């Protein structure tokens, strides 16, 4: 289905049309064609989906916006955008309808790609490509720090995903000449991203 059903509005233009059954067949055929054409034209004009908002504070822009990742609580949306003259990862707060700050995540000398976010978007895992060498990077929105999770000596990596609680990271690696699945366990001592909130004393805008 190309558009969500809620975007479609009722179309009163498509009403019933009476046709004289005694009319000649050629006139009847022309009349039905005309009626169908008018009705279909009214459908296209009157029932188009709502226009997509575009602006500096909107999810969509006049540039390419792709690779969306939605947090488990449904509040945050991470995606890759070519706006602002470069290819960056952006994080949008659907509740407050504004972008969240990601200091230190996007860098001029590296291309960020394929974001995946945890329960409340505390953790963001993504790919970077720096001078042809790819890495899996983990970004923490509380500490505002990034760390290299995996960097192969050779071969390609793609499609990193993080578990909702932020403990596990999975991705595809091509070091053996074929695509394999890799799973990384960050360990039981990490601070999990809980669906009902974050550990006491922390805020998603930074340390308290």
Q: Which topology of the largest domain does CATH recognise?
A: Neuraminidase
Oligomeric organization of the protein chains: single chain
Distance linking N and C termini: 45 Å
Q: What is the ordering of alpha helices and beta strands?
A: HEEEEEEEEEEEEE
The CATH homology group name of the largest domain: TolB, C-terminal domain
Number of domains: 2
Average pLDDT reading: 77
The percent of residues in helical segments reads 10-25%
Radius of gyration: 25 Å
Main sheet specs: 4 strands, antiparallel
CATH architecture title of the largest domain: 6 Propeller
CATH C-level name of the largest domain: Mainly Beta
Strand content: 25-35%
Number of strands: 13
- Report the structural category: mainly beta
Describe what this molecule looks like in 3D.
- With 208 residues, this protein is mainly beta.
- The protein has 2 domains: 5-46; 65-207, Neuraminidase, CATH 2.120.10.
- It is 11% helix and 35% strand.
- It has 1 helix and 13 strands; from the N terminus they run αβββββββββββββ.
- The protein has one helix at 25-46; strands at residues 65-70, 76-81, 88-93, 98-100, 111-117, 123-130, 133-140, 145-150, 157-162, 168-173, 180-185, 202-203, 206-207.
- It has a 4-stranded antiparallel beta sheet, with no helix packed on it. It has a 4-stranded antiparallel beta sheet with strand order 5-6-7-8, with no helix packed on it. The protein has a 3-stranded antiparallel beta sheet with strand order 9-10-11, with no helix packed on it.
- It starts with 24 loop residues before the first helix and ends with a strand.
